[in-house]
Amino acid sequence: MTEGIAAAGMSKREFENAYDIAILNKSMISMASQAEALIDDMLAAVPTPGQYGFDIQG
Q1: Which residue has the higher pLDDT, 49 or 41?
Q2: Tell me, what's the pLDDT at 34?
Q3: Of 36, 52, 32, 53, whose CA–CA distance to 44 is shortest?
Q4: Does 57 fall in a domain?
Q5: 44 — phi, psi (to 5°)?
Q6: Is 51 inside any structural domain?
Q7: How far apart are CA 50 and CA 8, in angstroms?
Q8: Over 60: is that where the pLDDT of 2 sits?
Q9: Domain residues for 35?
Q10: Total domain count for the chain?
Q11: What is the arithmetic mean of pLDDT over 22-41?
């Protein structure tokens, strides 16, 4: 496999670095979408404020 990579003009080290970056990029995209879903869930759990905006517990 590395012979084909070398023939394509990319060293084994460059290929490994490119592969690692691609995996890291995929995991970051996945984490970002999970965080967005979590934020959406948290926002849905918060009740909307009242119309007049005063505190009745005081």
Answers
A1: 41
A2: 97
A3: 36
A4: no
A5: -70, -25
A6: no
A7: 65
A8: no
A9: 18-44
A10: 1
A11: 96
